[in-house]
Write a structure and sequence with these properties.
Blueprint (H helix, E strand, L loop, with lengths): L6 E9 L2 E10 L4 E6 L7 H10 L5 E11 L6 E4 L1 H17 L8 H4 L6 E4 L5 H71 L6 H14 L3 H18 L6 H22 L2 H21 L4
Parallel strand pairs: 3-4
Antiparallel strand pairs: 1-2, 2-4, 5-6
Length: 292
């Protein structure tokens, strides 16, 4: 069945002293938009993550949150910029001399000045750490797909029920359509007899008028096309492929057909059924905005 565009998934994996936690969540979107948020040291992973998700999903705004925690202490080294410290010391001496003030070097004060002391982070290989990140992403993606699939199943069931209801309205319209011509002929005869009294009617002209009306108000083609669109909608909903855009197009076509039926039929009962069909089509249109 079709998949929903909304979902959530979470995955964790550890390796080489780090634990990766990845969360995926998505909302409706006309196209596929992937937003990745990761720690500064791991921004190089973002493009890899996008490529993997682009190969698996077609629509929706997917937010990816990557959280990284150290599981083992890493040896850090303190780095001293001796040249900068000496430069600070000389500048302070020169300042004291210019102000005729005594100067006494204070190493503890010097190390508090900007950039004299720094922490040197140990290097690590991103390609090695990517393995754990990829495992966490795979787990998150599996849960994400499962939720989208479940949501899609619920939407599909609802949409199929609505399509069945629309089909019933169309059957009523199709059953009523032949009576439209008969009713028109009876009304026309009645009006003419009222106006002309006992004057004999020209049967040929009457027949031509009725045939012209029947041709002008025929909705057979529209009903056939509408039925074809319904069949395509059902087929699409039962597939596992992304179908949101196709369904959106089919609903537009069905709206066009039902509007034509309403304008051509010129019948109150058919008009009532047309209103019901358009109401259900609007509900279908709203629902398919949630499908991938």
């Amino acid at each position: 069945m079709a998949n929903s565009m909304t979902g959530f998934g979470r995955g964790e994996a550890s390796g080489n002293g780090y634990q990766f936690s990845i969360e995926l969540k998505s909302v409706n979107h006309r196209f596929l938009e992937i937003v990745v948020r990761s720690p500064r040291n791991f921004t190089s992973f973002e493009e890899r993550i996008r490529k993997i998700l682009q190969a698996e999903f077609q629509r929706g705004r997917i937010e990816v949150h990557v959280n990284v925690v150290e599981t083992e202490g890493r040896k850090r080294l303190v780095k001293v910029d001796k040249e900068l410290a000496l430069s600070y010391d000389k500048a302070l001496k020169d300042l004291a001399l210019a102000l005729h003030t005594a100067y006494e070097a204070d190493i503890y004060r010097l190390v508090t000045l900007p950039d004299v002391l720094g922490v040197e982070e140990p290097e690590f290989e991103l390609d090695v750490l990517w393995e754990a990140c990829a495992v966490a992403l795979s787990k998150a993606s599996d849960g994400f797909k499962q939720m989208r699939r479940k949501e899609g199943e619920k939407l599909t069931i609802d949409l199929l029920q609505r399509l069945d209801l629309i089909a019933e309205y169309l059957q009523t319209i199709a059953g009523r359509a032949p009576n439209v011509v008969t009713d028109y002929q009876e009304r026309l005869q009645g009006r003419i007899q009222t106006l002309l009294g006992e004057v004999e009617l020209d049967a040929a002209r009457m027949a031509n008028e009725v045939v012209y009306f029947a041709d002008r108000t025929s909705i057979t083609e529209e009903l056939v096309r509408f039925d074809s669109h319904l069949a395509q909608c059902r087929e699409a909903l039962r597939s596992c492929d992304p179908v949101g855009r196709k369904l959106d197009f089919l609903v537009q076509e069905m709206n066009r057909e039902i509007n034509t039926i309403g304008s051509k039929a010129n019948d109150l009962r058919i008009g009532q059924q047309v209103v019901s069909v358009k109401s259900e089509l609007e509900k279908v249109r709203e629902q398919i905005q949630n499908l991938e």
